[in-house]
Automatic annotation (TrEMBL):
Major facilitator superfamily (MFS) profile domain segment(s): 59-471
Official protein name in the record: Major facilitator superfamily (MFS) profile domain-containing protein
Species of origin: Didymosphaeria variabile
Chief location bin: membrane
Membrane topology: Multi-pass membrane protein
Top-rank lineage group of the source organism: Eukaryota
Length: 503
């Protein structure tokens, strides 16, 4: 083996690619871009470090800020409940639950076509930012509703506009980051979400003090201020959001080549280099048996995550006044953000997911029991401190799993990510009707315990499935490998000695 080939292989190990050297040596060396062939291992490692730092400093802050706005605008109805929107619009408790859940009627089905479309946009960042501006305007318009029917209409349209963001952001990040980097970046999104929830509660508490100013109710000020801020910030971010790695104007030619090559090296192709049609990628996603299990896992996980939609209501059951209740929603979300980073750092470092999911499920089950078993304020608030990270934590590694286990072709990954999030998110519709009969919420916490148990069973079956697929790949027998290819792995991934990991 010549020195250049050795350097190429050593460099890939340094970058964290766990490709087997013997079987894919020639393929990898052929794929190395001309601009990188003359570089030493140390030079490529330094260039990679500089590349990741640049991506982190530009992409992550923008995506994080937009996700904060996404969650603030989606959850502000829960805060508005504490300031009289139900009384002003003459809503019952069940009607309010419908107003919460109807957002997902628009949000869920539109994720799939949106994520298929984003693969065809040369500037996906601009596409995402345009959606941000639109949903900000719709959110601000909520202040003008005067009837329950008008509120339902606005919320449904808001869901359609917001459908672009989350699955699009996950897909977008997976186009830039390798498998050893993606987990912490998805965690960064969820950390932004939790700080959005925390900041949203604090901001709502401040805005609601404007109640009556200029003849405008506090809940109306909430929608006006937060929606207008989203429009302004989304417009600014549109000028800074990068394209895909292969056509990004923020990178030098060497950095573009490296950004594409490092993604190709671990999964066989990079964004912008495949010609797979959208419909064919969608069909391949539907044909993959793993997708059904991941959808079911996400349905059960998102049912537990529905707590976020009613968290101010849960905290209000502690019998504090409205302002104190909103302030008390902040600490659990801040703690969740910190725990998320720790979980995903461990996941990236140990290349694991299954133990994290099972541990979070176990902790969540214990926390569901506490509010049903006691009315002690301290014990109940302790459970509320823990539940945001325990109930939502598994979703982080699930999205990492989707983007690594159903990686290629690109259109398939985009479709799979949207399908898992869209169909899984239907849990938010029916779960919205569980949060009644305070302070113990037996229906809600009892149902969520059942979901947690089924989630543990389903993810265990998924683990068995991917480990079986790895054994087939390791066998080296053509008939066994053919079964794996039929199950969703591409021929190129087989040549690169690709394996299902983290389980």
């Amino acid at each position: 083996m010549d020195n250049d080939a050795k350097k190429s292989i050593e460099c890939e190990v340094e970058l964290g690619h766990d490709l087997e050297i013997g079987r894919s040596e020639t393929v990898r060396d052929d794929r190395r871009p001309d601009s990188l062939r003359g570089m030493s291992q140390e030079e490529i490692a330094a260039l990679n470090k500089k590349l990741v730092r640049k991506i982190d400093l530009i992409i992550l802050p923008i995506i994080g800020i937009l996700y904060i706005l996404n969650y603030i605008d989606r959850q502000n109805l829960a805060a508005a409940k504490l300031q009289g929107i139900m009384e002003d619009l003459n809503m019952t408790t069940q009607q309010f639950a419908t107003a919460v859940s109807i957002l997902f009627v628009g949000y869920l089905p539109f994720q799939i076509p949106s994520n298929l479309l984003i693969t065809k946009f040369p500037r996906p960042g601009l596409y995402i930012c345009a959606a941000v501006v639109i949903w900000g305007g719709i959110s601000a318009a909520t202040s003008a509703v005067r009837t329950y029917g008008q509120l339902l209409a606005v919320r449904a349209v808001l869901g359609v506009a917001e459908a672009v963001f989350f699955p699009g952001a996950i897909y977008y990040l997976s186009a830039w980051y390798t498998k050893t980097e993606l987990g912490k970046r998805i965690a960064a999104l969820y950390i932004a979400q939790q700080f959005g929830n925390a900041f949203g509660g604090l901001l709502a508490a401040a805005i609601l003090q404007l109640d009556g100013a200029h003849g405008i109710r506090g809940w109306q000020w909430l929608f006006i201020i937060e929606g207008s801020a989203t429009v302004g910030i989304g417009s600014i971010c549109a000028f800074f959001m990068p394209e895909f790695p292969h056509n990004s104007r923020i990178l030098s030619q060497e950095q573009r080549d490296l950004a594409v090559w490092r993604i190709e090296s671990e999964s066989g192709a990079a964004e912008g280099t495949e010609k797979e049609s959208v419909l064919k990628g969608f069909a391949k996603a539907l044909a993959d048996p793993k997708l059904i299990l991941l959808i079911l896992c996400n349905m059960l996980s998102q049912a537990q995550g529905s707590i976020a939609n009613f968290f101010p209501t849960l905290v209000a059951s502690l019998n504090f006044n409205h302002t104190i209740s909103l302030l008390l929603t902040a600490p659990p979300y801040i703690l969740a953000g910190i725990v998320y980073y720790g979980l995903m750092s461990w996941s990236d470092r140990r290349n694991t997911a299954y133990p994290i999911i099972v541990a979070c499920i176990g902790i969540a089950c214990a926390m569901y029991i506490i509010p049903m078993a006691t009315q002690n304020v301290g014990a109940r608030y302790f459970a509320m401190m823990v539940l945001p990270f325990a109930s939502v934590g598994p979703q982080l590694v699930l999205y990492k799993t989707i983007n690594l286990h159903l990686a290629r072709p690109v259109a398939k990954r985009a479709a799979a990510s949207a399908l898992v999030n869209a169909i899984g998110g239907t849990s938010n519709i029916w779960a919205s009707y569980l949060y009644y009969a305070p302070p113990q919420f037996y229906a809600a916490f009892g149902t969520l315990m059942g979901c947690a148990f089924l989630f543990a069973v389903t993810i265990t079956v998924y683990r068995w499935l991917v480990l079986r697929e790895n054994k087939r790949l390791d066998s080296g027998r053509p008939e066994e490998i053919a079964k794996v290819v039929k199950g969703g792995v591409t021929e190129e991934m087989v040549r690169l000695n690709w394996r299902y990991e983290m389980y």
